[in-house]
Write a structure and sequence with these properties.
With 236 residues, this protein is mainly beta. 0% of the residues lie in helices and 54% in strands.
Length: 236
């Protein structure tokens, strides 16, 4: 069973695996560490610490989601100018021309999708996710997996291409039994906390400001005692 990857705080206490994989023709290779690579779904997840960059990437090679943990980053190009700081979350589409610029140290968590199937719906500009965006109501978790009353939920997809969806989700407290996900998901917790309990191993409590990645096949149970709001990045 693949591991659940917890990007806990402080970052110096993290205990994460190191994958024997490097993204090919990576314009942002400096300081990048891959912690998990799924060759079947075609993605890699990890962290990066880099110092000073001023790169013109004329054809960004894949879709990449980033969560800025420390430092400031500017993304600039035809029709867009994004200023990103610690706590921000952003998405760079495949094929865009972008100036990637930062002074000093930049630390971020990333999820890159070099194996994403080609599609005609690829967005043309990078996206800075509005973390406080009001959300419309959405379906609650499936009744057959719930161990508690059905919670109210809200959700909106903000970026999509092929079988990749990125957006915001909020849900009242609930408990869910062990399920084996058929998709992979990165969650950046914005409010509240959740405990994910794998089929074997210790429970993983993820709090606001932390990132967790649950690969396809990583059976887990969910328990939240308060409303949780998160960025979701779902492949599958």
């Amino acid at each position: 069973m693949p591991p659940i990857l917890h990007y806990s705080q402080p970052h110096t206490d993290r205990q994460l695996p190191c994958a024997a994989f490097a993204l090919q023709h990576d314009p942002l290779a400096a300081g990048r560490t891959v912690h998990f690579h799924d060759s079947a779904q075609g993605y890699a997840v990890g962290s990066s610490i880099s110092v000073d960059a001023n790169l013109l990437i004329e054809d960004f090679p894949w879709v990449e989601l980033g969560v800025v943990e420390a430092g400031e980053l500017t993304l600039q190009g035809d029709g867009f100018h994004l200023e990103l700081k610690a706590g921000d979350c952003f998405v760079v589409p495949r094929g865009v021309s972008v100036r990637w610029h930062h002074r000093g140290s930049l630390r971020r968590v990333f999820m890159a999708f070099p194996g994403l199937a080609p599609s005609n719906d690829m967005p043309r500009h990078p996206l800075k996710i509005d973390l406080s965006l009001p959300l419309p109501p959405s379906s609650a978790p499936a009744a057959n997996v719930l161990l508690s009353a059905a919670p109210k939920a809200w959700s909106q997809t903000l970026f999509s291409s092929a079988n990749l969806r990125i957006g915001l989700w909020e849900c009242e407290a609930y408990a869910r039994k062990q399920v084996e996900p058929a998709y992979s998901e990165l969650m950046f917790i914005l409010e509240g906390a959740v405990t994910l309990t794998p089929l074997s191993g210790d429970p993983c409590r993820v709090t606001a400001g932390e990132v967790v990645v649950v690969p396809a096949g990583a059976t887990n149970a969910w328990l939240s005692n308060e409303t949780v709001r998160k960025v979701f990045c779902i492949l599958g």
